[in-house]
# Entry
Amino acid sequence: MKKEEVPQDGRFLKHTNLRDIYYALDENGNYCQVQSVGWEAKNEALSLTWENILDEAESVRREVLKGEKSPLAYHIQVRLFDVGMLSAYSGIPKKTIKKHLQAKEFERIDDAFLEKYANTLDMTVDELKKV
# Structure
């Protein structure tokens, strides 16, 4: 593909500082790097991926509202974390986190401990308690 043919479909990256790098031929026939704000096929894949992530998050939110899971489970899902990642970033053992995914166990946690989760997930304790 030629340098001027590199796609610039900015549905996702247009309003960010992020750019994709593609290799294209310049006017001398040499390969060069060209920045792109995206292309249709990638945007469609990202769109489907985000739909799936949001559907899963909504499912977890409903479970939280039913009292089947804790708000922590929802916030982990929305931020694309898993138990292992949360443990690695927070220093909280996986076993403890798994216990706190249960609504009844989560309710017993004091705010000082919830602060560890909140800081790791970049939110306040009050936000952590809600869905």
